[in-house]
Amino acid sequence: MKRAFAIRATPTALFVGVFFFFPVGVLFAYSFGTSTYLSISFGHSLANYREALTNSLYVGLLVRSLWVGALVGALAVLISYPLVYAITLGALRRYGEFILFLVIVSLFSAYIVRVYAWRTVLGRNGVLNSALSGLGIIDHPLTFLLYSRFAVVVTLVNVLIPLAVLPLYSALTGVDLQVVEASGTLGASPLQTLRRVVLPLSIRGVIAAFALCFIVAAGDYVTPQLVGNGSSQLLGNTIVQWFGVSYNWPLGSALAFVLLAAVGLTVGAFVVLTRIAGLRDTPR
Amino acid sequence: MRTRSVGNVVQVAYALLVLGFLFLPIFFVVLFSFDARGIGTFPIEHFSTRWYGAFFDDPTMTDAALNSVEVAFATAIISSVLGTLAAFAFARYRVRFAGVFATAFVMPLVIPALLVGIALLSFFSKADIQLSLLTVIVGHVLITLPFVLLVVGARLANFDRSVEEAASTLGASPLQRFRYVTFPLIRPSLLGAALLVVAVSLDEFVITFFTIGGHATLPIVIWGQMRAGVSPLVNVVSTLMLAATVALVVGVRQLSGVRFR
After folding, report:
1. pLDDT tens-digit map of A156-215
2. Which among B69, B220, B73, B67 is positioned nearest to B132, based on CA atoms?
3. How far is B148 from A2, CA to CA, in rounded Å?
4. Does A66 touch chain B (CB under 8 A)?
5. Looking at residue A43, what is its pLDDT?
6. SS3 for B47?
7. Which tens digit of pLDDT belongs to each residue from A122-164?
8. For chain B: N or C, fewer Cβ within 10 A?
9. How far apart are the first and last CA of chain B?
10. CA of A117: how far to CAs of A105, B222, B249, in Å?
11. How far is CA A82 from CA A104, A178, A240, B13, in A?
12. Which residues on B lie below 8 Å from A87 (Cβ)?
């Protein structure tokens, strides 16, 4: 049994070990190292972490990353939940598979293409501005649309909705329609049914959806770089800089691990919050 | 009855709104790729395919496209083999630490992709491995393995093993049994998983950015062009990539019977 398992799992384990866990270890080792203009060396100094956690620039970027991530995650779940409800338990049940298929197409469409598309929509001469001026609503193009924190949030929410839909769909298809109907028959208002029956039963999906979107958004560097401005850059952008032109890998990797830890803690805190709110799918 | 139908209208309107939000931006990109002026603004006066011609005449673009395809196919092959082997291990043999391995194998997809990218960059640089399409493929295999595990694993979970026993009883060697019984039964799922891998690999940017060195795939070209300013070719590249995605996802659906749940 063990031998048969090992024979089949070993090649994959080796691959993931050598090319993922070992590299993450190398990165971790770098985070205690030092960097000069020409070379980077491992070390055992905590200076990079001290810098990452005390320099107000990095702390500010970290807080902004978590905040933008949480906002994007919350918006993606709030927008997706009613849609998924409609196609699993609601009026669009019969078209559920087709609509899910459309969402999947969107999910697998290139991330960078979808970010680019928002530049086309939000730009100075973009679709939105020409539509608004065509309708006579504005005289001059709105310039706050692109290269702003607004653009970063809208784009990330748009890109991540499909990622939220998937776990919500699998959670809500697991909710028995008869249970929902029974709740109504027993006198619960639709809102009570949602709060007391449907939401608790699909809470795992909500947690997964929020966590996935939060992790991607908080760790992103592409969207802020392409549609954001100076005051909407995230910690990821700084990490990319240290690994690129600025060439301070030790500081960059320390920042990356701080980000990873903060993201993990936030996801954990969210799970605890749902527990405190009494949202659980099994009775206590 | 009346409130119910009002509720239905609201649900339909809401679904259309969200789908519009998802697809309208992409739709404009496709539309602008056929704009003869190529500046990506309304009104579009003439439709033309001249930018598509320009795309195929530009060696930077065609090289990047070939690189993308090369990486995607290599990734699909490696990922399918490794993922299927592991899926068999998980589905057929219950061992104590299987869960640990399963978690380890999906880790690269769960942590921010940026970290995977810089970890690989650090590793390749420390190991003196030159960045190339090969290093790109390594990154792509890491993040596509979970998809193969999921799709093939789902197929193996409801696999009727009595047909395998029958094959053995009738005298098939283990190799024959796999070749003539097991493999044909999982082939559609396997192919579906491979197409999914191709779709993910073709579109991957975040990790590729760190592992590609001086080369380029299509997403890297888009990144470069976007930083340089607006180029009508970006609309063309985007449209071609979207078309590939749609074709692949339709293929996955037809082949694997994966219902994306």
Report:
1. 999 999 999 999 999 999 899 999 889 989 988 888 998 889 999 999 999 999 999 999
2. B67
3. 22
4. no
5. 74
6. strand
7. 888 888 888 888 888 888 888 888 889 999 999 999 999 999 9
8. N
9. 32
10. 16, 11, 20
11. 17, 19, 36, 11
12. 15
Mapping DSSP to helix (H, G, I), strand (E, B) and coil, where does residue A35 land? Answer: strand
Instruction: Tell me which DSSP letter residue A196 carries.
Output: I
Query: HSE of B178 in the Cβ direction (CA atoms, 13 Å)?
Result: 5
Which residue shows structure tokens 């803690």?
Answer: A265
**CA nearest to A154 within chain B:** B21
- Give me the mean pLDDT over the B152-179 stretch: 90
Return residues 126-155 of A near B (CB < 8 Å). 126-127, 130-131, 134
- Residue A155 CA to chain centroid, in angstroms? 12
Residues 6+ apart with CB under 8 A from B213: B130, B131, B132, B135
Nearest 5°: CA angle at B22, between B154 and B243?
Answer: 70
- In terms of CA atoms, which chain A residue is nearest residue B196? A108
Report the distance separating Cα A38 and Cα B138, nearest Å. Answer: 27
Say how far apart CA A202 and CA A15 lie, in whole Å: 35
Cα four-point dihedral sign B119, A18, A217, A67: negative
- Distance, CA of B62 to CA of B52 (rounded, Å): 11
Is the model's pTM score more than 0.90? yes
Question: What was the ipTM of the complex prediction?
Answer: 0.91
Quick: pLDDT tens for A215-273.
Answer: 999 999 999 999 998 889 999 999 999 998 778 899 999 999 999 999 999 999 999 99
* Length of chain A measured in residues: 284
Gap between the Cα atoms of B18 and A86, Å rounded: 12
In chain B, the percentage of residues whose pLDDT exceeds 90 is 70
Taking an 8 Å cut-off on Cβ atoms, the answer to whether A82 and B32 are in contact is: no
What part of A 77-116 touches B (C-beta under 8 Å)? Answer: 79-80, 82-83, 86-87, 90-92, 97, 99-106, 108-114, 116
Average pLDDT of chain A? 91
Q: How far apart are CA A250 and CA A43, in angstroms?
A: 9
How many Cβ pairs closer than 8 A exist between chain A and B?
Answer: 242
Query: Taking the mean position of all CA atoms in its chain, how far away is CA B153?
Result: 18
